[in-house]
Design goal:
With 384 residues, the chain is an alpha/beta fold. It is 39% helix and 14% strand.
Amino acid sequence: MSAVERLRVLVVAPERHALRQPHAGGLEAVVWNRVRWLRRQGHTVFLCAADGSDFLGPRPELRLPRPRWGRPQDASDSTSPDGHDRRMAGAFDRLRDLLDARMLPVDVVDNHSLHGDPILWSCDLGLPVVTTLHTPPLPGMVRAARMLPGRAPHRFLAVSQFTARAWSDAGVDSFVFPNGVDADQWHLGAGGPGWVWFGRIVPEKAPHLAIRAAQRAGARLRIAGRIGDAAYFAREVEPLLGGRIEYLGPLGLPALSDVIGASAVALVTPVWDEPFGLVAAEALMTGTPVAAFDAGGIGEVLAGMPATTVVPTGDVGALGRAAAGLAALSRWGLPRGRIRDAAEARYSLEQRHREIERVLSVAANGAALPALVTADAVGSAVGA
């Protein structure tokens, strides 16, 4: 049982994908693990998430509509089909009415939605809300944040200093609260000769550049992940498959950990302002070195970590050379256990969850966050 009082927590997930294995992306994995851990600690957790998610209860008001694509080839993580935004607004209106009528007993809202509506519950309903910023600034969320009066019981957390600065530039200040990795799910691997790339297969993650880097180096590359943009996959990735380049599809745990842990090096290739880069921390947890583009928060995730190299974003040649160098270290007997130990020390999910439990407890009790949560737990306020 947790050392803090039992809480009644409403966790609001992003609605685009169901929370279940294999995870659609890092954001879904973070929320799925959060719900599981809070319930294990004895807290009452109500989950508001997409239909088909694990942990959903019987209340229809807590089920969010998923995008309905007319054709599979139109499916995309970056756009919404016609009518989806209207359905989402209706879903949040129904949930707001439920909360307003006190038909859902909640002490605090743990908000991971990418919509502005749950942010406003802190002033409209007086509910304490903790919103985690997982993305670059989104217009709807920025508008909602700017509408909050200073007395609203609301706190913003950002997953990296880079993300916190970006939101601060948009007028939204936050505390830094990095993501974590479950060491029990991501186990130490023995390594192997091949390279690996894993994550959402979308343009901003640019797996096609990882393929080109591997091809230049003459390396074998395995790719694992969900196709989040069918048109991009067909145009940029699929034509490059075959020979030494293999697509494994979406893998759940422990199969995904096995593949990464059996690799010489993991490539991380974002070409956008990556808010955090959970895949980099996950690869290190298996003892696998990481070669990455220095985009967004990736540099923070890898700073000071052993067997990691960052190169300028989009520089395929530099990425291939860095990966080949790290793969050579693997062949020479790189101590993979040391890589994992460093990852566990910095990104232990158990420690992260203890900290977020305190944050939620502080919010529920209306105390000042900096007074009760240590600076090394949540960083310092950006712009404060």
